[in-house]
Amino acid sequence: HGPEGGGPQRRCAAHRRGAVMDLQPESTLHALILAAGASRRFGSPKQLVRIDGRPMLHAVVSRAVEVAGHSVSVVLGAHAAELAPLLSHSPAGIVINRDWEQGMSSSIRAGLARLPGTADGVMILLVDQPSVTTEDLRRLVGAWRRQPDYLVAAQYGTTTGAPAIFPRWSFRELGELRGDRGAGALLQRHADRVVRVPIAAAALDVDTPEDLLLLERQAEGAGRT
Prior knowledge:
Blueprint: H1 3-22, E1 29-35, E2 50-51, E3 54-55, H2 56-68, E4 72-76, H3 80-83, E5 93-96, H4 104-113, E6 121-126, H5 134-146, E7 151-156, E8 159-167, H6 171-175, H7 184-189, E9 194-198, H8 209-224
Parallel strand pairs: 1-4, 1-6, 4-5, 7-9
Antiparallel strand pairs: 2-3, 6-8, 7-8
Helix pairs in contact: 2-5
């Protein structure tokens, strides 16, 4: 056969290569829920407080699972024995942070150490932000998938913070955090590489009984509208 005979074969091979390129899997995201604190200001394990009829921990984990599937880990610490049974029927994995008294950074380190090697990014969520919805998380993930080399964080008021997504290149710096500071230090350090997603619901974190009362009042108000 002449050159013409090889043409369709070459075109076929090129088409196959193109098809393979088109089917590249999207970046892999793992959700990490920080729930290791002692809830001292609340006075009892706030992770167990019921919101809309179920424990706050369960609600936050369920939303993460809706967005990230089985790629979810929950970092427990102070009340691990009480909280772990809540997750017995959840696809989320449990990470025990035995150094939880060292603060939030120790939970981030514990979670990072258990991340699958395939993770291209980690979404850090706080257990005490129960007003953040599944749709809020989906918007956050969507922004990251469009710009996977950027940090993506919730914007509420003048604050940029959790929930937030950190790409693989930032994992080393996350692991170097110390004390009770969360990952906000990285968002400040790399402010020019942060995509901000408005999530007003992230403004309310439940640290005290008064915060819970405010949350319940807001829910009642929303129910009346």
